[in-house]
Amino acid sequence: MVTHVLPLSLTKRRFFIIIFIISVPWILSIMSSPNMQDEMLLQTNIAELQTKLEHLHSKYIISQEEIQLLSHQLALITENNYILPDFQFYMNNTMPNMTSIKLPSIYNFLPHFLNDPNSLRPAFVQSKGRSGVSMILGVPTVKREVQSYLLTTLKNLIDRMTPDESADTLIVVLVAEPDADFVSYIAKQIEVQFPEEHEAGLIDVIAPSSAYYPDFTKLRDNLGDNHQRVIWRSKQNLDFAFLMLYAQRRGIFYVQLEDDILAKKNFISTMKSFALQKVSAKENWFVLDFCQLGFIGKLFKCSELPWLVQFFLMFYNDKPVDWLLDHLISTKVCGLDMDVKRCKTAKAKLWIHHKPSLFQHVGTHSSLKGKVQKLKDKLFGKVTLFYSHINPEAIVETQIKPYKKFTLQKAYKGETFFWGLLPQPGDHLKFKFISPIFIKKYLFRSGNAEHPLDKFYNTTVEILPKSMITLNRNYNNVTEDGYIIIGKFNTLGIASGSVDRNLGKISAMRLTVHSESENWVILSEIEIEEDPS
Predict the structure, then answer these.
(1) How many helices (H) does the chain have, and how many strands (E)?
(2) pLDDT at 441 > cutoff 90
(3) Distance between CA atoms of 2 and 17, rounded to whole angstroms?
(4) Least confident of 37-41, 162-166, 351-355
(5) What is the pLDDT of residues 71-118, one digit of tens each?
(6) Which of 170, 141, 146, 349 is nearest to 240 (CA)?
(7) In sequence order, what are the residues at sequence separation of 6 or more whose Cβ sits closer than 8 angstroms to the Cβ of residue 439?
(8) Positive or negative, the Cα torsion across 452, 453, 458, 461?
(9) Confidence band for 477, pLDDT divided at 50, 70 and 90
(10) Which residues contact 402 (CB under 8 A, 6 or more apart)?
(11) Alpha-helical regions (H) of 294-367
């Protein structure tokens, strides 16, 4: 059997010819366009093209590695005239001999990968296959003892994007848990809560195989940390590496986030513009930092993610992930003869901070058992804690005791938010209109940026029609005192909808709590829109 394999030089030549063919018309169209005469805009477009070429080149390198491996396998098949078993092939490929030098591989640092061929293959993928985007947002999540912030974070990220930004972005949620049922549950929640975004391919959900992780009981304890913390930070290093490996081929820039954050409006365009500006200025940056806390909001070129992944995998048991990033930057630019000031100046050229910050950490309960963290990024600025509306004149009352000045009356007037202590089953928040009205739509938003878990759970929205004749109709969900249940709060802590005009004018509207809550409750937005027609 004769096998023909293209020479690598010929393959490389063809690759760059294709890139040239694609690029030239694009550049010419920019230069000839009457709308592109501004020099800054031209430089930005050239910078974007440059980053795309770097990304394509990194994909080309990966492809060449695969071709090399395939060529070697085909040569062995041709030489021996039979197909070697997988195990024998890998043994032949990894055993040193007199004519070749074997580079270190991931198996040197994580030898347990050799025990299972699926160790580097995701155990779960929910994806529409979106790729070629400008921005990939990596969001790792795990089981939390208290409560998950994930859906609230995703809602915030999506709400802060324009349609154009959303179309050029991929959010990758890594559910870093071996429990297949939990992974499926999270994926289903995302699909149900964000149906349009799911269908459009904006959100991928992935989970690593349990074989991806080593035996954590055998990790070395160091840095004075107890074993549980060593496991937590070591696993985080591996989780980030897995996310980056998945993201590498799917976009131009990668941003590491967490599952308990807030983002500023148009954050995607701000990050992309800042990155392209640095590329255009030929600044040799490695990381652009859009948050001062931990590893939140760190942006990298996807083509340079292998540096991080390799570093994380080599030292995953030694240091926390944010320390490893700092060490990598130091290794790149700091000499042994440098003092602290010179080293810091050199690092600042590779690690560039953007002000103001675009992300804020809001979670209080860490994924590490028993750890409470209240760190806030002071450069993020003020966070919106409530939304004000002009509502119909009404008498407002509730059995839930308010905290300090945060009363329901003030919240209804749009002066602040309502903050109540531990709602109990049967508690109401009642709005009795001075004059009965037709209601066009309503919106109740619970929780806020600083206290995202203080939401209404198992709480219904109810109305009382002015005319009791209405109740003689075949309406379901009518309470004993004559209220009609028209909605409820979802898992994001929001209740919204419209009111059927056939119900006539409404005398009162109320929220009814049906189960005990472990948290206080915040009502950060009350909007009842009257239908004047």
Answers:
(1) 14, 19
(2) yes
(3) 28
(4) 37-41
(5) 655 654 555 554 445 545 455 555 555 556 777 888 888 989 888 888
(6) 141
(7) 463, 498, 499, 506, 509, 528, 529, 530, 531
(8) negative
(9) confident
(10) 408, 418, 419, 420, 421
(11) 305-314, 321-333, 340-350
Tell me how far apart the alpha carbons of residues 420 and 523 are, in angstroms, rounded to a whole number: 9
pLDDT in tens, 45-73: 777 777 777 767 666 666 665 665 566 55
Helix or strand run (H / E) with residue 76: helix 39-80
- What is d(CA 375, CA 360) in angstroms, rounded to the nearest whole number? 9
DSSP label at 221?
A: P
Whole-number pLDDT of residue 75: 55
Token pair of 428, please?
Answer: 């109401």
- Look at residues 38, 50, 13 and name the one whose alpha carbon lies nearest to residue 303: 50
Instruction: Write down the pTM of the prediction.
Output: 0.71
- Is residue 242 within 8 A of residue 312, CB to CB? The reply is no
Given a contact cutoff of 8 angstroms between Cβ atoms, the answer to whether 510 and 486 are in contact is no
Between residues 290 and 28, which one has the greater pLDDT?
Answer: 290
What integer is the mean pLDDT of 494-500?
94
Q: How far is CA 75 from CA 78, 306, 502, in A?
A: 5, 29, 78
CB atoms within 10 A of CB 370: 9
Tokens standing for residue 401: 């005791």
Centre a 10 Å sphere on the Cβ of residue 44 and count the other Cβ atoms it contains.
18
Q: Name the pairing type of β-strands 251-256 and 169-175.
A: unpaired
CB contact at 8 A, 131 and 249: yes
* CB within 8 Å of 12: residues ≥ 6 apart: 60, 64
166 near 202, Cβ under 8 Å?
yes
More confident residue, 374 or 189: 189
How high is the mean pLDDT of the chain? 85
Q: What's the confidence (pLDDT) of residue 449?
A: 81
pLDDT on residue 396 = 96
Classify strands 298-301 and 439-446 as parallel, antiparallel or unpaired: unpaired
Kindly report, residue by residue over 188-214, the tens digit of the pLDDT.
999 999 999 999 999 999 999 999 999
Q: Is 247 exposed, middle or buried (0-12, 13-18, 19+ CB in 10 A)?
A: buried
How many other CB atoms are found less than 10 A from the CB of residue 398?
21
Q: What span, in angstroms and rounded, lies between the C-alpha atoms of 311 and 74?
A: 32
Helix (H) or strand (E) holding 184: helix 180-193
Measured distance CA(433)–CA(506) in Å, rounded: 8
**Lookup result for tokens 């938003």:** 445
